[in-house]
Amino acid sequence: MVYHPNPTVLPPGTPEQIWEHVVDVVDDYFEISREIPVSQLDEVGRLDTVPLVGATLLEPWRHDSANFDERLEATLQTIRRQAVVHVSRVQQGYLVEVLVYKQLEVAKPMQATGDTSLLRYDGSLTRIENPIAEQPLDEGWIPMGRDTALEQRILGHLLACRELTPM
Known about the structure:
Elements: E1 8-10, H1 15-27, E2 32-36, E3 44-49, E4 52-53, H2 68-76, E5 79-90, E6 93-105, E7 141-146, H3 148-161
Antiparallel strand pairs: 1-6, 2-3, 3-5, 4-5, 5-6, 6-7
Helix pairs in contact: 1-3
């Protein structure tokens, strides 16, 4: 496997060309949740993806598990990944940093003795402070650090699609 520096530099181009290229490559691996494109004014862009449960051995068409070990791990336990891509303009072109975070699901006990549907009979009043707020996305997941194998695969795809080499 070829190692690509992370962040890596893509050659100069228009901000729109570089951004579309980055979105096209990342879209092959993840569903994109938010884009802040590189523009002439701010010269910095950010792309966030939706957390995605990892591809298993039974899903060879999915590309979000970088190698056999990652697929085996995702087959035996629930793993999800989320990517963040930073693009900024530098003198040589555009600096692209790919960060892929892995998380392990907190499994609930199969043979739990307590039941969550028990009612309270102590007469206390339960007050819901903020009933419409969203649940945190990371609830029930343990951070496992970064997935450097997938980061390298995405960087390689970014460079190969444009037949570029890092500067």
